[in-house]
Amino acid sequence: MNLDFSIIPKYLPFLLQGAGLTVELAVLGIAFGILLGLVAALMKISHTPLRYIAHFYIWLIRGTPLLVQLFLIYFGLPQLGITLSAFASSVIGLGINSGAYLAEVFRGGIEAIPEGQTEASLSLGMGKFLTMRRIIFPQALRISIPSLGNQFIITLKDSSLCSVITMSDLLQTSQRFASRTFASLEFYTTAAVLYLLMTTVISALLRSLEWRLSRESRTRGN
What we know:
Helix 7 runs antiparallel to helix 8 (184-221). The termini are far apart. Helices cover 80% and strands 0% of the residues. It is an all-alpha fold and 222 residues long. The chain is built from eight helices and no strands. The protein has one domain (5-221): Orthogonal Bundle (MetI-like fold), CATH 1.10.3720.10. It is found in: Cell membrane.
């Protein structure tokens, strides 16, 4: 077995550029997913027909592979006259997919807040929207931070699937140079290390955020 990792430094700037695009896709995708997830969560807990739309969205997206969803957006929508770039398709696909999972995360966080807080807010003259914005959602978000962080890491790793729709992320960049130099093991190992570094840094940041929120909560309790 002949391994030569000395070839990697020459291509490392391109790999780092691909890694930067991977992070960008994950951040935009999770931001879009948070918006969709919050809307779907509010629809699902509402006592209106909108909850059936939320149920269908969550059931459909969680029951189908992300790769199929990306194919439908990038290759399927042009048949309907809707053509999106690989970047837009990737962000939309990641957002729609993560939103279905975050909807359940936010729903659980909202329902974990005692109903007495809502009743007390309403009795003080605060409307439902203001109660949700100032009282319920901040607490639900704090409860949801660990699951939200996990979903961000999942989205970061799932973004590698965007390489199949010509997105020049870390994986596709590695594939391109691996096929050009026949150094597949070296490039894929480097890609794995970069993914591991990114997820490790994100995990550390999330743990720090959880610790700070927990400390603030304890301080307020005292």
